[in-house]
């Protein structure tokens, strides 16, 4: 008996396609899958990849009879997609979205919610710098966190079922408040992305000589910052705008810390420079101790034993 | 016939040990190697690793009869090491250092230079986040750039010989002015390190709840920024201080760009957010096209073909 009989994926990008592949490859998650995307060519590509069982022509037809509807659209499209989907969903079904900002999305969806549908946002903290249905793969969620932020109207058994769904896809789940979710993501994800985009932007604005040099000598540290700078611009514009307060607050802390280190350099204050670097190393060391860094897929060359 | 008959390495950290291992493993670089370090325990460890042929007790004895003396000390110790070494070097020998800042080191060494010794700084742009003699490995320089910035008193045949030395170690070499070197390193290396230290510092200062979250959810982007934050604090303090002007100037550009993106977020200026992200993606794309990113040793998971 699968966790859901029929599941509906709205939006077939990296995340939607990875969920569909997960359902295909791991037994017991869903008996039937339907998928829809606002872009007809994305549907064509998903069909060619064999991602879902059915590709109904519109949202209304797609969500009909689904036990669970997963909105995998960019953050700015989630509320509108929910508005169209909700009236056609069957009583007792679950609505979820994988958006990476929570408070603003929950507020935007609130007016359309129905008593008989549990709305349970769940954000899988997984991704690559690639997008589109071709980028999806079943292992994307394995050992990654999925942050579940149920709204007060969601029924407990429905929450438990969605948790089982994400665990079956390989994710570790954690429940939290929407506000906590947004502040955590600001530091672990939004700020690094904002900085990565900016440092690449700074390099791009330099004279031709130095831009060429950046390309030649990127391995010296710059390259580490560029992977996530390849991410989808529209997705990130939406994340930045929909989570403005948390990101601007976290950015202000970062800017203060940059300014403090810059001042220490300007003033030749050796002790304060060392302090700042040592504080930074603590987190790094904890990550290594936790086994989060030194990812075996990303080894740093070391001498042979 | 080796490039140098006798080579002397002063400072047996990651770089010094990697040069020594390179000499051991690749024929024709140097017939004899001697190594010295100011820290007796480092010498003991180097000896246990079998890195060099001889470990004389002081700098004077180490540099005697050497055809090439390579100072691999932290930037702040290079000039002092050169001051002690130069009077004991044999006429016609080459003095080089691997320091990662150039203009300030060249200025500091200038008073001690001798007419009959070519001083040719050469900065291998290679490193890992590990330090000490155990961290060294012969392949460290393979396919990495070594930026050679000869001073005007260096003799052309000596420059050519040092270039052959670095190429024999596997490096690609490029000649440039010291000032150009420092500005290039500011953007490709110093700024990314400064930012990496700072973002880790910002995270470290957060409340316990959020610090724990950073450790749990680091894979969402934060982790990419932490590898280089593990680097040696003293080394980086020296680099920041000895190359103050270039780093502060580059940092100011970066800070302006961060502020511009923050303002666009604050003002809901969608077009300017997208612009900034797209500009950043251009450099990333060029890196991928150049084959510099998507390093085969650091694959991002992609769906099976």
The gist of it:
Two copies of one chain form a homodimer. Chain A is α/β, with parallel strands linked by helices.
Please describe what this structure looks like:
The structure is a homodimer of 305-residue chains. By secondary structure, chain A is of the alpha/beta class. Chain A folds into 2 domains: 173 residues, 3-Layer(aba) Sandwich (Rossmann fold), CATH 3.40.50.720; 110 residues, Orthogonal Bundle (6-phosphogluconate dehydrogenase C-terminal fold). In chain A, 49% of the residues lie in helices and 11% in strands. Chain A has 11 helices and 8 strands. In chain A, the strands form 2 sheets. A 5-stranded parallel beta sheet of chain A has the order 2-1-3-4-5, with helices on both faces. In chain A, strands 6-7-8 form a 3-stranded mixed beta sheet, covered by helices on one side. In chain A, strand 7, helix 6 and strand 8 form a beta-alpha-beta unit. In chain A, helix 4 packs parallel to helix 5 and helix 7 packs across helix 10. The longest helix of chain A has 27 residues. The first copy, chain A, is elongated and about 70 Å long. Chains A and B meet through helix 7, helix 8, helix 9, helix 10 and helix 11 of A and helix 7, helix 8, helix 9, helix 10 and helix 11 of B.
């Amino acid at each position: 008996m699968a966790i859901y009989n029929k599941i509906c994926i709205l939006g077939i990008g990296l995340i939607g396609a990875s969920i569909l592949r997960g359902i295909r490859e791991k037994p017991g998650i869903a008996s039937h899958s339907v998928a829809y995307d606002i872009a007809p060519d994305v549907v064509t590509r998903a069909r060619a990849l064999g991602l879902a069982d059915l590709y109904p022509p519109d949202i209304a037809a797609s969500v009909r009879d689904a036990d669970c509807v997963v909105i995998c659209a960019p953050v700015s499209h989630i509320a509108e997609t929910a508005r169209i989907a909700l009236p056609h969903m069957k009583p007792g079904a679950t609505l979820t979205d994988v958006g990476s900002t929570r408070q603003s999305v929950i507020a935007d969806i609130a007016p359309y919610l129905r008593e008989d549908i549990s709305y349970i946002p769940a954000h899988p903290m997984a991704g690559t710098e690639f997008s589109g249905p071709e980028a999806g793969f079943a292992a994307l969620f394995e050992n990654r966190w999925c942050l579940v932020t149920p709204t007060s109207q969601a029924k407990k058994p429905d929450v438990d079922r969605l948790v089982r769904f994400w665990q079956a896809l390989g994710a570790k789940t954690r429940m939290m408040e929407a506000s906590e979710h947004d502040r955590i993501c600001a530091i672990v994800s939004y700020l690094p992305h904002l900085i990565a985009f900016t440092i690449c932007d700074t390099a791009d604005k330099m004279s031709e000589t130095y831009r060429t040099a950046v390309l030649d000598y990127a391995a010296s540290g710059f390259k580490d910052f560029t992977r996530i700078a390849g991410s989808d611009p529209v997705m990130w514009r939406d994340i930045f705008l929909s989570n403005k307060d948390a990101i601007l607050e976290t950015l202000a802390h970062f800017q203060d810390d940059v300014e403090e280190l810059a001042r220490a350099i300007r003033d030749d204050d050796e002790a304060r420079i060392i302090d700042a670097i040592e504080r930074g190393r603590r987190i790094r060391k904890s990550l290594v101790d936790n086994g989060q860094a030194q990812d075996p897929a990303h080894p740093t060359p070391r001498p042979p034993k």
